[in-house]
Amino acid sequence: MKIKRNKSVHRTNTRNNTSKKEHIQLDLFSQVPEKKTYSLVNFSEISRWKRKLESATKFDNNSLNQQTIPKISKQDIRQLELNLFFHVPKQDNPYSVIEIDDIKGLKYIPEFITQSEHDCLTKQVDNQPWLSDLKRRVQHYGYKYNYKARAIDTSMHIGALPDWALALAYKLYNNNFIETIPDQVIVNEYLPGQGISSHIDCVPCFADTIISLSLGSACIMDFINPSTGEKIPILLEPKSIVVLKEDARYKWTHSIASRKMDKFQGQIITRERRISLTFRKVILANP
Ligand SMILES: O=C(O)CCC(=O)C(=O)O
Hints:
Layout (H helix, E strand, L loop, with lengths): L1 E4 L14 H10 L13 H20 L11 H13 L9 E4 L6 E4 L5 H12 L11 E4 L21 H12 L9 E7 L5 E4 L10 E7 L2 E6 L6 E6 L4 E4 L1 H5 L2 E4 L4 E4 L2 E4 L3 E7 L7
Antiparallel strand pairs: 1-2, 2-3, 3-10, 4-5, 5-14, 6-11, 7-10, 7-14, 8-9, 8-11, 12-13
2-oxoglutaric acid (AKG) binds next to strand 5 and strand 14.
């Protein structure tokens, strides 16, 4: 495995391409002080601006300006929140990125979050209800994923990502690990002995990049090339992310064996409870 610094990707400013309506929205938001990184963004500040925007919309709906200022829907406001972040200058990626030479598009990033973020996230996740419809417990955010149908449409939208998941989604985007801000997260809980069978994430349902954050126990994720049978084990440590693109996303399967201990480079790793958060960008079947 070789360690490479991730290159920062420059994006075109979307403001030049915005519609008249977005301009009105952006002008309102241009009064929000400039933010350098997502971690400095204050959600209560965004809520305050959203309320201001909503009341401006109500006022305009009752006025003669109704024809000139379009009605702003909840979805527009949400998009506006995202636009706000599109104007945040992208930061140089400060992480050590380990590229796995043998699998094109596979990256492993240790210490993506701090220990206190890890502990706080674990608590946040454990405060939410778990679904027990699989062998392991899961939580779905953004869109409910139907494992059998392997398709996602607007009817599966179950609401915005909660703040703690959205914060991570922006952090992944701002550090250039993903091209678009993820809008779907599945949380998996693995007790010792539990795993996930070999699969490729649904191709028509999700965009090109899939990212999984590990909390709790370390474990081995096996990548298998179905056309050659080659198997490459990758150790996923707590606080790390693994990024699947290109061949890692589309040509190799990934799985976690259902066992209570793993052996990696001659060392035995006894599994404890592991939680993963997998971030994806949904491709809607009926947008
Ligand atoms: O637990 C993980 O890290 C991966 C989860 C996964 O592959 C999935 O949800 O499809």
